Amino acid sequence: MTGMAATPVQPAARNGAASWAERLAHLPRETRDTLFHLLVIGWTIAPHALHLPVWCGVMATVLLAWRARLAVSGGALPNRWVVSAVLLLAAGGTFWSERTLLGKEAGITMLVVLMALKTLELRARRDALVVFFLGFFLVLTHFLYSQSLGTGLWMLVAVWGLLTALTLAHMPVGRPPLLRAGAVAARAAALGLPAMVMLFLLFPRIGPLWGLPQDAQGRTGLSGSLRLGGVASIAEDDSIALRLRFFGPVPPPELMYFRGPVLASFDGREWTRGRSGFPPELRPPLNLALAGEPLRYEMTLEPSRLPLLPLLEMTPDRADAAPDLPGWRVTQRPDGQWQLDRPLHERVRVQASAWLQHRHGPREDVFGLRDFVDLPPGANPRTLQWAVDLRRQRGLQDADARTLAGAVLQHIRSGEYTYTLEPGPYGTVNERDAIDEFWLDRKLGFCEHFASAFVVIMRALDVPARIVTGYQGTDPDVQDGWYVVRQRNAHAWAEIWQAGTGWIRVDPTAAVAPERVQRGRSLVAPPGFVAGAVNSLDPALAERLRKAWETVNNRWNQWVLNYSRGQQFDLLRELGFEAPSWEDLAKLLVLVASAVALAGAGWAWWDRHRQEPWQRLQQRVLRRLQVLGVTVRPHHPPRERAARVRAALGPAGEDAARLLEELDRQRYAQAGSPLPRHGWWRRFQAALRTARA
């Protein structure tokens, strides 16, 4: 009995799986279409789970699952009181999480819930159409968060699914396969592609059409302040910060410094920009002096959380060199940093010119330089004493800033310091003595450790000094003509002031890790689980895949997202407009739109006649017979018309009747229904003329 009971287990499981698959394949059409529609809605909603409250995603999932269960079981849809209660619950949750029912976040939250809730009212085609068009509107909301290539591809599938569901709703007869409806939807989308391309190329760019505001909360990148370990945490991020290409010779990596926040105030724990106690006329001016040839370059910057442009040092504020960014107010601060009027929450592209040979800052001592020698009292006493002892050495008592900086750098080279991405926390006992612990005890650090200690020591030697943060170096390989600067290229270096020269860049990292500066080789964090597994199979595979995706994504950014008014006018110049304007753009748009509309109308006329040749032939036959007095109707087949011709015309209409019977045999033959040749119509007209005579 045990053996008999045990034997059917596996076949039963197999039969159960087979019966389930067979059940899915033989679902009623209404159930199948509803499940497909719910799947498309879930696909469209899914990316919003990254931005909206958790409860919203859970509620939408529960509602869609509930509707799917009702579709499979054939249960009754909930009444309006239940739907209204869920709607009130969603409104309360939105107000609780967003503190309002208005605005982008609250509006999209309610839209997602309404989309899922509306599926519980799918009783008629009108309800389905509301869901369809809500879905198309929901697709647009995704681009309020991201216009990346991945989002575009995801939404392309969503649009195809919605068009397929809409096509199924307009196929009321039979059980059309999903593939057939999907093919019709894809063809309809392809027919609209020329109009989409035309609008993309010629529709006037008024404001940041493709640069909608994005939420940059949680985005990594440069910060307006610096603590020990801050740059090291950014260096673990492999995402792209900016892309760069040069219109001329490419500078070596050791000269590629992208200037970001300049930090001058130190409280013993953190470096900030600080505020000067001197009036503006006494503060150090930029006083930029340029030498050599300019270096023209173009840069595409990814969104960041700071209102700045990390441009190549040194990009001057000149009409022929400064960045041109329509819609933004861009200014250069006295410390050389390029400032924006608001955080860079969208991807932008700028062109500018830099002079790698330059001098900046006051040549003579000014009162404002005293801001750059201030140190917090009582912080890092051992490092300050070390600086005093250094000054007492022979040849350094009256040394200038360059000589003193060289002595400090020599100590770094010979002092057994280690450049590492994971130096561990500093200042656990006393945060204000973190520099003492790094400089004199552990000697393990990243670029910000060396730059911070160097600036503290130079200030202790009464030399004005400050920290500059930004990016240094690029990826060694060029992607599609562009150099890639990643967040892990984030860097911190120092500037000291030398009388008669101005500010001088000093990079202490080059003393301990010259390959970091000379070759742009930044330290890389250990790969994660997935990347580690891919690397174990093929070390170069992950790198090739990443570069291929980044190349495609860069082309999307350059050709689509960064398509601007200037490029529209360049297109008009290529088309023959000498001095293109908005009026020319509008006229060309109207002209092309009219041509496309006429072409579409002509194609529709031709397609209608191409697809209905029998109907047109039957109408022509009907008109000729009615002229002869034969009583026929549009619904009469050719055989019935032949009988009525014999009854009305007698022997005179025999030839015409035989031709109509021939037409009937040809139309309803099992082999198909090819359109009669033109000779049949000539013979039929001749037979009618004979009958009339």
**Mean pLDDT over the full residue set:** 80
- Ranges where pLDDT stays below 50 over 5 or more residues in a row are 1-14, 207-220
What is the rounded Rg? 38 Å
DSSP summary, beta strand count = 18
Total of DSSP H or I helical runs spanning 4+ residues: 25
End-to-end distance: 95 Å
Specify the overall morphology: elongated
Spatially, the strands of the biggest sheet line up as 11-7-2-16
The domain tally reads 4
What does the largest sheet look like? 4 strands, antiparallel
Give the proportion of residues in helices. Answer: 40-55%
- Strand content bin: 5-15%
- Helix/strand-derived class? alpha+beta
Question: What are the main properties of this structure?
Answer:
4-stranded antiparallel beta sheet; 693 residues; 11% strand; disordered N terminus
Task: Describe the overall structure.
With 693 residues, the protein is of the alpha+beta class. The chain has four domains: 21-187, no CATH class; 225-281 and 296-518, no CATH class; 529-561, no CATH class; 612-692, no CATH class. The chain has a four-stranded antiparallel β-sheet, with no helix packed on it. Strands 3-15-17-18 form a four-stranded antiparallel β-sheet. A three-stranded antiparallel β-sheet has the order 1-5-4, with no helix packed on it. Helix 14 links the parallel strand 13 (418-419) and strand 14 (444-445). Helix 10 (193-202) packs antiparallel against helix 21 (582-611). 29% of the residues are buried.
